[in-house]
Amino acid sequence: MINREVIIYDKSSYKKRLAELSKLVNEINKNDLNGYNAFNVIYEIELPRNALYKCIKVPRAKLPEYPLPETETGICKFEDNYSDGILKLKIYELMPPVKTPYNNGRLERTCQFIAEKYKGLFLNKKVIIRVQVGIPRDNWDIDNRDLRYIFNGFVYGGLISDDNINFVSYMLEGIKSKENFIKILISEKKNIKKVCSKKI
After folding, report:
1. What DSSP string describes 99-159?
2. What would the pLDDT profile of 11-63 be if each residue is shown by its tens digit?
3. Which H/E stretch holds residue 182?
């Protein structure tokens, strides 16, 4: 990824997508743009425009150097420790359901806050992320929980380069617990056996 003052973008992919969009626009301009064709242009350019947009990441504003109040607009209570190449976290929050997100903004901000503390630790490295979700309920569906807010926070805070398949692999497990929590282990992918065997 190429750093710029305003945005972060993948230069190679960006130029490729831009060329595709430019070629399409040139082809469109060769046609007679009557009322019907002009309307269809909107749909024809949407896919390449969206592909171009996905090449760009807009950095989030850095969070203050002190925990915000534990409110919907603040961050959650958490514990963190880094040793033996593994970053271990415990966040006291409910993992948001996919269909009805709960406190997703707060969870994302918490992960960004933690990521800023350890900024650059796993940058440009392939990582393995092990997540354990505790909910005080029996027989809940683990596939109905949304991890994107965790990964996004880590990217925005600079802990990891990106959350695509080139950088991140993850494991997810769920348990019945006395309280809502999210435990996370992060390490380089080469340490996957150590991460799997470590007590979380």
Report:
1. SS--SHHHHHHHHHHHHHHTTTTBTTS-EEEEEEEEESSSS--GGGB--HHHHHHHHHTTS
2. 788 888 888 888 888 888 887 777 667 767 777 777 777 777 777 766 666 66
3. strand 181-188
